[in-house]
Amino acid sequence: MNRFFTLLASTFVFATASAHSVPESQSRTIEMVADNLKLTLMVGDDNRLYQLGFGDADKTVAIPDKTPAREMEFLPAYGNGVITEPAIQATHTDGNTSTDLHYVSHKCDTLSNDVTQTVISLRDPAYNFFVDVYVKCYAGSGMMEIWNTLRHDERGGKVVLYRYASASPLLKSKEYWLTQFNGKYKREATLEEERLGEGIKILDSKLGVRASQYRIPSFMLAFDHAAREREGEVFAASLRWSGSFQLAFDMDWNKSLRVITGINPLGSQYYLERGATFTTPAVLWTYSRNGKGEASRRFHRWANDYAVRDAAKARPVLLNNWEATHCDFDEERLVGLFDGAREIGAELFLLDDGWFGNGEFSRDDDKHGLGDWEISTKKLPRGLSYLAKEASKRKIGFGIWLEPEMVNPNSELYNRHPEWIITQQKREPILGRHQEILDLTRPEVQHFEWQVIDNTLRPNPGVSYVKWDCNRYVTQPGSQYLPAHEQSHLLVDYNNALYRLMDRFAKNYPDVTAMLCAGGGGRVDYGALQYFHSFWPSDNTDPLGRIKIQWGFGHFFPASTIAAHVTRMGKRHLKMAIDVALSGTFGIDLALDKATPEERRQLADGVKLYKNGICDLVMYGELYRLVSPYETPLAAMSYVSKDKKKGVVYLYQTEDGNVPVVKMDGLNPDSRYKVKEVNLPAGTAPRFADATLTGKELMEKGLSNPLTAQFDSAVLQLENID
Ligand code: DGJ
Description:
By secondary structure, this protein is an alpha+beta fold.
């Protein structure tokens, strides 16, 4: 049964019989606090739910003595007086297109020392139509997670849900500066900031099975001026959904900004059965009075505590073969690469695309074989177990690439089941990267995709790592499985089925480390990431491009999740490629067997440095962005350990020019730190002389920066010596 749809008993009890339940008569205001972020709601005399405040928890929120204007409704529903952008729109079984939501009750539960959850029950006074608003507050990180459930007990058929936002809070400021994380293939998560004007601004995705080709479902909003790193009010939000999304920013003449977030309503009307519950994805909100740096750190803290799989488990340094070989390899070449991996100290070999398909469907390029998950007898006659054993002999792990959701028309699978693909009837199927998407709403496809995973991993216990790819998006959202009147369920049901599959994978293979990938960073969101240890941010591994891409994702996702591999793309200095990879989950993806001894030595030094000094800071440190590559020719950032005893600083020249001084952040002002430049190729003199400085000096006076030329880079380690 769909994780998001639970059939309920036919009689509803809408005032929950919990010990913490607050009946209507006892409470007119509801306050929810997640550390520094407070949401204050009020039940008006008309019984509707209004928002009084959303923001700084220290600010007193005035409680009006009369019912606020309808524009202040917390979850505006279409059709009975709401004239602004609605969060909820439903057509009832008798054809009435309006909904009105009235407060019934609410309850607060303490789920742990850190987490409280409030559920506010609303219903339409004229219909058995119910919405429960969930607000989960994480005190430690100051994260508020909000979602809704919708259900009905109306006679006479299905209620049609046209809009079902996850949340629609109101913000109040003089000015709003919106940062989106825009991009495309090889240019993911590029920052784009603008001042919002009156009217509605929509950021969205219509891609169905991966949220991003253009942007990720995350954004930041700064008050009064463009977002700054260390000061000013900033909200950061992220939708936990991998499918099409919509983020709508609707500013009225009064400068109130309603932010409606959720699944994209375009073509997604949902026919809700009587007794079924529709659960929206959750949206995460956090708030900072001290600029966007703190907002990012709050996201990272929450993610490590609640959203990333095994956040504290070390990620192996891996050697991937994609850039080195694409689909062109054999056993001998791979085993040769294992030797190289071992020599430089890598811990795992990740075999990418191209290991499957036979005969005319041999996966020798991206036009063939996807869907036929039998090992290639031509390339790998002794199978995956042999490779895993050879890797293990060399004391390295072995991982495998999978793309279970897709099929090439040139495959046995497609020949057997052309009806399994997502496409529109009476239209010529449109290919993307020469492939089609399997319709995961179909039970046989759900079974098949599980078998792809299980049949690969179960007989090969030596496989300890999976890279899960998704190389195209939906362009013809039609299902040959769903009935005509439920075609618009496709993308919602697909993503819920996908999460069930990912969950099954994570639960059945708890020791297999997993990387989320979608033709680069096409599926980076906290809906999917809960089943993975890291994600592949981009196929752009030219360090020059990667600096900004990793910078962008780092606004929401901790460094421990951002896979960063050294490649030869762009043919930059190897040192720069290594320095950039050292700021994420370090790995390598190049033809080691063709590298010079000097290059291999440099890589081995990089691995050693990562394992012996930097890895802990990437995994558990706190990110401070110091100098932005969007404003200067330099990108500078650091990770500082939580006890402030250690740090690592990265400086990358993205263009010619000089930023003379770089001020550190997040250090203990009174402690003394030894500053040492590391990762210097043999014979290179340090540009930064060893020094001992106090945290105050490092943060207030800063470090002189000698770098001036494009492609120069430096990594500095800070160590407290008190
Ligand atoms: C896209 C990924 O981003 C690449 O790293 C690689 O795995 C290819 N797919 C393989 O087809």
